[in-house]
Amino acid sequence: MCSNKVCSSLCLCCSCGMSAVAAVTLVRSNVFPIRTRVLLTTRALKDKPRPFHCGPAPRLSNSRFDPDGSGKPTTWDAFGIWDDRIDEPILLPPSIKYGTPIPKVNLARVGGASLQGRRKENEDRLQASQITDAILYFAVFDGHGGPQAADFCHKYMETYIKDLVAKEEDLKLVLSKAFLEIDKALARQLDYSADASPPSAGSTATVALLRDGIELVVGSVGDSRALLCRKGKAVKLTVDHTPERKDERERIKSSGGYVAWNSLGQPHVNARLAMTRSIGDFDLKGAGVIAEPDTNRISRNRCDRDENNMLHHAHDAFLALTTDGINFIMNSQEICDVISQCHDPKEAAQRITEQALQYGSEDNTTALVVPFGAWGKHKSPHLTSTFSRSFASTGRWA
């Protein structure tokens, strides 16, 4: 036995046949003094790990993105952050560019659902697609006065955005231009079409662009919404354009329009439209109803210091786009909680649309659910329904 206490400790570990893991456990349990713990840890880490399977040892690689030399990309789960039920590869170039592992958002896993409800027809539309190698496109449109405006947006919005991103780097500017251009294009179609839609036809539009799996930009007009679920909490990315907002109400009045309240206490532009911005509604353009969207960017780069302006896959579970058939009956946190209980985004989209109808919504209900890195990580408690839900469809929830 060596006279030195540190050496004695090391010898003791070796003579007992102690494994590297056991040695590290003793080190962390403060059984040995600090110097002894340092030496034990060093020695333990140098020991080769014992494999849990038989056969030849895997060939190792110097690349952190291909550690076992298999030629397959490292999955996000290998970094110990993504939920262990999900096995998605990381995006290598963006991960290098932004200095953080970024998982691939697979369009096949995006959930979407739309139910007619008690309406005569479904005027809602939804869409998810890849417009460039780096940019994914997600959108919901809620038509009114007929489905014509929503159909037009569903058919052409992606094309306008795709043309613009080829010339413009700023995605907020891309969305602003696309909304205004598609509004003008719809007006031209109504002017020249023999089977023209009524001038009262219009649509909300909520569009999200995801670049490199980490830069999220949202643009919207009307009262369809986008929210981000972060650590189980709802983060609103859009604000409804309604006459209830003082700034929008004043803008309508200064443009020559007026706001009137119906018997339920709901304000409408010129006693007709429940929103102050939309695609279409050309009979109310002179009253201040515009197609210029509000835009919001959630990105992560070295210049960002505010965490609320960053997309964090370790904390952000999903993006949800919803129409007013859901929003008028469920608040943002309730939407976040219901989706968080679901096993996958497809189930979540179906459940949230059905839940709104069960709560008393009489409108079309549409939801698009895009999973991020923390999907399934933050579970919400079981939700309970109340009798007051049957009366809630006449109100507007935060």
Automatic annotation (TrEMBL):
Its cofactor is Mn(2+). It comes from the Eukaryota. One of its GO terms (molecular function) is metal ion binding. Keywords: Hydrolase, Manganese, Metal-binding, Mitochondrion, Protein phosphatase, Signal, Transit peptide. Residues 109-372 form the PPM-type phosphatase domain. SMART domains: PP2Cc. Residues 1-23 form the signal peptide. GO terms for cellular component: mitochondrial matrix. InterPro entries: PP2C, PP2C_BS, PPM-type-like_dom_sf, PPM-type_phosphatase-like_dom. Belongs to the PP2C family. This is protein-serine/threonine phosphatase.
